[in-house]
Structure formats: C-alpha cells, structure tokens
Amino acid sequence: MHQQKAYYLGLDLGSSSIKVSLVEKVSGKSLGVVQVPDSEMEIDAPQSGWAEQDPETWWQLVCEGIKKIKETHGVAAKQIKGVGIAYQMHGLVLVDKQGDPLRKAIIWCDSRAVEIGEKAYKDLGQDYCDNHLLNSPGNFTASKLAWVKQNEPEIFEKVHKMMLPGDFIAFRLSGSPTTTLSGLSEGIFWDFKENRLSQKLLDFYGITSDFIPEIKPTFGEQCTISKEAAEVCGLQEGTPILYRAGDQPNNALSLNVFHPGEVAATGGTSGVMYAVTDNLSAKECQKVNNFIHINHNKQTKRIGKLLCINGAGIQYRWLMNNLAVSSYDEMNQLASKVGIGSDGVVILPFGNGAERMLLNQDIGTRIVNLNLNRHRNGHLCRAALEGIAFSFVYGFEIMQSDGIQTKVIRAGNDNLFRSAIFADTIATLLQKEIEIYDTTGAIGAARACTLIDGNHDRFSTYIKNDHVMTITPEKDPSLYEKAYKTWKKELKLILDI
Q1: Are residues 186 and 90 in contact, defined by beta-carbon separation less than 8 angstroms?
Q2: According to the model, what pLDDT value does residue 2 have?
Q3: Other CB atoms within 10 A of residue 98 CB
C-alpha cells in the first residue's frame, strides 16, 4: 500500500458514466482513472425530447467507483485528503425535507422547457436577460424547475431544495445542501449586473429563494464527508470536499484554460467549445451561453462562453451501433479511405434534441446526397465525422461574432479528438493549432483540490507532461472549405423550411 503518500480524489459525473481519479496531493501526478458502469448509463426518455436519470443511481455508482479505485491502487481512506467534483451541467434534482429525490433528474439534453424559457426571454425582456442574466433563460435549470411547477404541482409542493447534479453528489457525501456561483450561473439563476440571485427571474417563475442551497466558493472547503456517507462510499469521515464545477468549466480547468483567449474543446456525447473572456458581452446569448468561470471574482472577471452541440459523439455512437462495425477504430479506418467531402454525402448531426445554436430548433439528424450505388459505410463514417466537425466550426463562427479572440485551443485525447479526420477538419477550417492533452475531467477535478491558494498557474506545470500532440492546420484548406460550404448549404435549406 502507498502508506506515506497523500492523494486527492476526483469525481466526474457524466451522463454516460462516472469517472473517478486519484492524483498525488503534492505533485498532481495521476495514479489512474476508473469508470463505472462498464457499459454506458441509460437515459430515460418517457416522451419525445425528454431525458432523465435516477440520481440515486449516480450515488450508487459514485460509491462503487470510489471503492474500485482504492482497491485498484491500494490506497486507504485516510490517505485521501480531499475530494473534487465535476458534473454534467444544467440538470435539475429536487429533494424533499428528508433529502430524498422527488423525481428522476431532468438532465442537460432534456428539451421540455424550451417554450417556457422562450416565453421568459420575451416577458422578462431581452434587455434584462442580455444585460443581467447574460443568457436567455432557455432550456436551463431554472426553466426546468418552472416546468415542474407548472406540470407536476404535487411534486413541486414537496420541494425543499433544488440541486444541480454535482450539488446532489456533494449532498449525499456530506448531508449538507450546498451549491456554487458557477453552478447557479449555469442554471440561469444569477444576475451578473447586481452580483446576486436574480430575484426578477425567481419572481417571474414563482420560485422561492429558499429552494437554493447555501452558496460556497468554487475552491476551498465546501463541506465534509458525513459519518453515514463514509460507511457506504469508503471515504473517511471529515474528508473535505474542496472543489466543484460543471463539466465544461472543469474541462477547461483540466486543460489549463483560465485566461482570455484560451479555448477548451470537448468531443463527447455532446460537443462543446468553451472560451474564456473578460467581457460581459451577450450579443449571441440566444445561441451561446455565458457562465461564471471557475476563477471569476469581483476584481477579475472571467466569463466562460459555452457553445454546446447536443448531436456530436452520440451521432457517431449511433452509427457504430447500427452499422456492421465493431469499434470506433474500425469506423475511423473506413472513413480514412474516403476523400475530403465524403464524395458528396452530408450528415447534419442534430439528432439529440433542440440545438441552442440553431435557436432551439430540433431538426434531427439528416443524411443527404446518399447514392445507393456509390456510397458505403465508410462514406457514412467520414460524413459523420465531418458533419460533427463542421457543426463545431459553425458554432465557433457564432462565438467569434460575439468578440471571442482565440490564442490557443486545447482538447483532451479522448472521444472524437482521437479521430485525425475530426481534429484536422476543425484545425484547418479555423486555421488554428489544437493542442491535445492526455487528461480527463476526473483528473482535473482531483488536481483542482490543490488550488485552495488560488494559484491557477500551477496547472501549467501539471499538464506539461500530459501533452500528446499538436494538430496543425493543412496549408491548403480549399477542399475542406468546399465541403463545409456544401454542408452549410444543406443546413440552411433545412432551417429555412
């Protein structure tokens, strides 16, 4: 056993799985990451556009993952000196006075509250939403809570606290209901101009501020492991929870993205471009979100502009499950045998609910220009990778119109960025290098525990050894630009219908 060393533990609660990491407390070196369950978690869809998961299942898997990583690396509970939590953003968990969930969690890709958010944007006024919330209320946590109030009044009457997914895990670990400023901003509860909860939004939705848990700083002791939780999760009673953030701000932290001009990219179930800025511009707030970044404070504004593409990795996974292939590697090899532009085949990968960057339209996945005599599975694989990459570029163009200046783009060495076609397409069309690092959100959440002193520059030393490669743009982008132009033409035809 590693008797002498101390460690931090990181939890990353995704919609597909939960990852748990251990890093050395002093050096930040990663011991490893475990994932539970072995297969992807189910997402319940009782109606079209809905997406729910059981928060108690999250808690059971968190406990399983903690025990698994301790056993794998021979680490005792007393050696773990702190816990960091990252989590899927924008979800809604409702608990009663006993702390029990009142219904399944309404998760990030659930689109049932779109109309409620659109009405709020209109009735509250564009000026208020743009300048105070920096967002349209949209399909986010506050609007989802309003949906419950309107459609499930018997449940709403029993609500004691509302929580984001990471808040619920911290609550199960500690018994204390807490949240963070960054979390409240991602739920569209925060008034940036007045630097407090948006009372105007709460009043409009008929929501009491009593529902909001106690607000804690992003870094530092937020709460501690309770005796009851210690007995079931395998951590030591009194171990502090030292950090909490949504998965995209946390992914940015993991990639050392703290300052204006730095961009973090993620190609998972959903696709994300997350850019840090120091201005409160909300020109494109109906398409791009503006959240409090992890190192934001009154003296130094740090806003994370988040562009989310719901239909990203889920599109590629759907193809794998429905083509005669056995792995993503096989799909990538098939795609590599097809030229840029996929011989005219175009895939619009928007089949995972309403897309905010398309003004919450739900156009579904579209496969067009398919010739049944010419095209094979390799064409579909390449068209899917290109279509997802094109949607990243399309979204980034929207962000640039909102004043984003790009110095560097960083991404993790997992999921879609393992595909050279995907990464090359984005780098070439944006004419920007993409730095690839072998790190994960779970590792970042664990390393964040070291940042109690606010020295965010420490991450630059952590990730030096994590660098895998840098994707450089092709010198001649003409074929990529031609294919992208064709893709945008097909998208416009659908949007204009």
Answers
A1: yes
A2: 47
A3: 7
Q: In whole angstroms, give the CA distance from residue 52 to residue 46.
A: 8
10-residue mean pLDDT profile of the chain (497 residues): values are 80 95 94 94 93 98 98 97 97 98 95 94 95 93 98 98 98 98 96 95 97 96 98 98 96 94 90 91 86 90 92 94 94 97 97 87 95 97 98 94 89 89 97 94 95 76 90 96 98 93
- State the amino acid at position 12 in one-letter form: D
CB burial of 149-160 (b: ≥16 within 10 Å; e: otherwise) equals beeeeeebeebb
* Residue listed under structure tokens 């690092």: 437
- Dihedral Cα 468, 265, 311, 284, nearest 10 deg: -170
* Alpha carbon separation from 250 to 69, 186, 195, 476 (Å, rounded): 21, 13, 22, 35
Q: Which residues contact 286 (CB under 8 A, 6 or more apart)?
A: 121, 136, 138, 356, 359
Instruction: Tell me the three-class secondary structure of 280-345, residue by residue.
Output: CCCCCCCCCEEEECCCCCCCCCCEEEEEEECCCHHHHHHHHHHCCCCCHHHHHHHHHCCCCCHHHC
212 HSE (CA, 13 A, CB side): 22
Percent of the chain past pLDDT 90, that is, above it, reads 84
Please give the pLDDT value at position 3: 52
Instruction: For residue 270, give the nearest of 109, 80, 472 by alpha carbon.
Output: 109
What pTM does this model have? 0.89
The three-state DSSP-derived secondary structure of the chain is CCCCCCEEEEEEECCCCEEEEEEECCCCCEEEEEEECCCCCCCECCCCCCCEECHHHHHHHHHHHHHHHHHHHCCCHHHEEEEEEEECCCCEEEECCCCCECCCEECCCCCCCHHHHHHHHHHHCHHHHHHHHCCCCCCCHHHHHHHHHHHCHHHHCCCCEEECHHHHHHHHHHCCCEEEHHHHHHCCCEECCCCEECHHHHHHHCCCHHHCCEEECCEEEEEECCHHHHHHHCCCCCCEEEEEEEHHHHHHHHCCCCCCCEEEEEECCCEEEEEEECCCCCCCCCCCEEEECCCCCCCCCCEEEEEEECCCHHHHHHHHHHCCCCCHHHHHHHHHCCCCCHHHCEEEEECCCCEHHHCCECCEEEEECCCCCCCCHHHHHHHHHHHHHHHHHHHHHHHHCCCCCCCEEEEECCHHHHCHHHHHHHHHHHCCCEEEECCCHHHHHHHHHHHHHCCCCHHHHHHHCCEEEEECCCCCCHHHHHHHHHHHHHHHHHHHC
Tokens linked to 157? 């009457």
Strand duo 408-412 + 434-437: pairing? parallel
